[in-house]
Backbone:
């Protein structure tokens, strides 16, 4: 009987020792474990950041490149419209009034003008053809021929012979004759005008 009680007490003490040991093992972690766990967590965090950073940068760069490209596309679309409109405007054919065919009439007979020079009297003989673009104007030229011839002769007498020997002098005379004859026509109530006067004969003797 005494032996069984001793065994019972021994077993109870052994069980209590095991429980105390288990409590000691399951108690708060030691500082060394905390340091190791912290170091592992920091390493994982740094490694994850190094892996994720390039991916994040690529995403950001992709958005940054896409935004200017979109803006340029919109600006290009906006800028293209005026160019297309301008091209459409320039492609419109200009409406031109049909030009009437040229008609000619001679201011006959030839004009003869004398010039007193040191070596004697010199003569200039010239024939003129008037060009207009309506039959009515041609009839007005014929009708007012005396007034036209009078103004032409006075204009010729205002020149020096040496002026009429050069091409520039002849062109100057032709231009002034055209202006003068149109003034005469307008003064006499004509609505038409002489477009050009041509020399068909020009002789200096």
Residues:
């Amino acid at each position: 009987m005494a032996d069984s009680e001793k065994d019972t007490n021994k077993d109870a003490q052994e069980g209590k020792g095991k429980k105390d040991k288990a409590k000691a093992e399951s108690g708060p972690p030691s500082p060394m474990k905390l340091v190791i766990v912290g170091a592992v967590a920091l390493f994982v965090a740094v490694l994850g950041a190094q892996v994720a950073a390039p991916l994040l940068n690529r995403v950001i760069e992709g958005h940054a490149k896409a935004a200017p490209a979109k803006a340029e596309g919109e600006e290009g679309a906006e800028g293209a419209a005026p160019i297309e409109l301008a091209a459409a405007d320039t492609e419109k054919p200009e409406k031109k009034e049909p030009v009437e065919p040229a008609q000619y009439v001679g201011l006959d007979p030839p004009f003869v003008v004398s010039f007193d020079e040191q070596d004697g009297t010199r003569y200039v003989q010239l024939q003129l053809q008037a060009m207009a673009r309506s039959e009515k104007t041609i009839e007005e030229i014929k009708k007012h021929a005396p007034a036209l011839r009078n103004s032409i002769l006075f204009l010729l007498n205002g020149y020096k012979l040496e002026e009429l020997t050069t091409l520039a002098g002849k062109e100057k005379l032709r231009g002034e004759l055209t202006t003068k004859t149109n003034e005469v026509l307008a003064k006499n109530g004509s609505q038409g005008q002489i477009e050009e006067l041509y020399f068909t004969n020009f002789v200096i003797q």
Notes: The two ends are 181 Å apart (CA to CA). Helices lie at 2-25, 31-91, 135-143, 145-157, 161-164, 167-187.
